[in-house]
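Morning run. Coffee first, then this:
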Amino acid sequence: MIKSNDVMAYGALGVLGILGPILFPDYTLSIAYLWMMVLMACTWDTLGGQMGYNSLGNITFFGVGMYVSAIVQISFFYDGGVGEYTSAMGSIKPEFTDSEYFLGLFWGILAASVAGLVLSVLFSSFMFGLRGPYFAIGSLGLAIAAAELTITIDYVGGASGISMPLFPGDIEFRSTFFYMLCFGAAVIAHFLLRWLYSTQFGLAINAIRDDEDKAEAMGIPTLVYKRIGWGIAAFFMGGIGAIAGNMAGFIDKEVAYPVPTFGIFMVAMVLLGGKGTLWGPVLGAIIFHVIKETTWTYLLNLQWVALGLILIVNIVYFQQGIMGWLQAKFPERFGIVVDPSTTQVGSRQGGDGQ
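And here it is:
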């Protein structure tokens, strides 16, 4: 059930999402990236916040999605195939009709999402044998290995990269079109996760986070839930990767697997907003993106220093994130019931120095 506070939040975000390109036409793509980061943060929190498995490798599915989408979009309507298209190093520029482009994009996004899901199932067969920091480092290794492997495959351009099919239409419509895709994907991901967290799935993954061994002893099939959680993240990361690749217009190792930037940003956004909460990733992504864009505009040589300071302050003073701090400060506003007797006992014990 949606609470009154949620209704207000959804109303504000809905106005921003719908009127954003109209009110800020010069920043349409920037706001599109904002919704992309909201999706990244929300899906990362499924495993990292709700389940307690901190993944640094979700960017793997993002990059794979880019390349899978490119292969599908080109091979569907170019007779020479992807290999010939990329071997010409950009000299071949086939013109796709409007219907060919949009149909290819549709199938490319779908294929990228499915590819991410399939890879998550394959990786989970051995990755979930790791826990804690070992899982985080292992997942990071997947992203690095995927990036290095990609540049050895000449079929997709190798280290030279690959140009995406040209968008049919003027630049203003292009920006608005990809904006709508990013906004729509973020909305679908958020509401899907909201529904899942309200079901037995939410209880099960929280039990895994609290104590996985006890959850297994209670009969919860932890591996199944971990695979589902990672699969959901991989599905959306693959799809948004396909969209991001078309937004960029050109993909290579650095664009497809931005481990030092987006790979870290999605973790930082969740930490800032609050792990394991519904609204924390959304709030963290919005604040982080606004600060990032502002510092890159006005503090060009100090943007990384500013972002680093934000993370330090966040980790040292707000380890529970903004939403966690607000819930602890104003529990009644979030429907959290506090037992007065417990509070009094805690205060009395604290006064006695125990």
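The two ends are 41 Å apart (CA to CA). Good start to the day.
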